[in-house]
Amino acid sequence: MRKLTYFVACSIDGFIGDPKGDASSMYQFVTEEFLDFLKTEYPETVAAGGREALGFQDLENRRFDTVVQGRGSYQLALDTGVTSPYGHLREYVASRTLGESPDPNVTLITEDVPGAIRKLKAEDGELGIWLCGGSQIAGELLDEIDELVIKTYPQVYGSGMPMFGSDFAVTDFALESVRTFDNGALVRTYSRKR
Ligand SMILES: NC(=O)c1ccc[n+]([C@@H]2O[C@H](COP(=O)([O-])OP(=O)(O)OC[C@H]3O[C@@H](n4cnc5c(N)ncnc54)[C@H](OP(=O)(O)O)[C@@H]3O)[C@@H](O)[C@H]2O)c1
């Protein structure tokens, strides 16, 4: 069984972006030490443009071979003319409005998103599935999430786009590891308690 991992950047108070989802205030924390961590442990989570700029393009995927995005998150790439932001992974995008996939590497999920994810999780393979976000799709997939990797940057947003766009419900996770960075960033890994 492959794991679905929500690997996401957020503020101290659990927002993944401003009310519209913009997380650009967090970029300043992606310093040399943090980049080194990404390069060693999660190089596949850097999108195409960044991979090229950072010289990551020949790095092997370490944790994931598949990425799942909501159309809201994918739209950020489309708006810059990029149809396959994670071409080094199998890309799945949930959308009822796109109609047809803009890219041969992108498979649309148009209905029963949890069912589609369960099928991906049931496939054989050593690498896992990265749930990229955003908030709405993460809320819909909360029951399917096996692991959280939360990059927390030392900022409070007060309000904004929550990590999960879902109704109140308590879901238990166990802390597996915490990594701290000189700039105050934290990366916490939690596994789902089932
Ligand atoms: N901080 C981070 O690490 C991080 C990571 C990722 C994203 N983000 C931010 O998150 C924001 C986007 O989040 P969001 O909550 O607005 O959108 P989202 O969750 O990325 O996407 C929502 C869209 O997914 C589709 N969808 C949702 N449920 C579906 C279902 N059951 N069946 C089929 N399609 C479904 C719909 O697309 P259609 O409208 O096409 O039907 C819906 O509009 C972006 O601004 C981005 O910056 C932040």
From TrEMBL:
GO terms of molecular function: 5-amino-6-(5-phosphoribosylamino)uracil reductase activity
InterPro entries the record matches: DHFR-like_dom_sf, RibDG_C, Riboflavin_Biosynth_HTPR
Boundaries of every Bacterial bifunctional deaminase-reductase C-terminal domain copy: 2-186
A biological process term (GO) from this entry: riboflavin biosynthetic process
Protein name as catalogued: Dihydrofolate reductase
Species of origin: Streptomyces luteoverticillatus (Streptoverticillium luteoverticillatus)
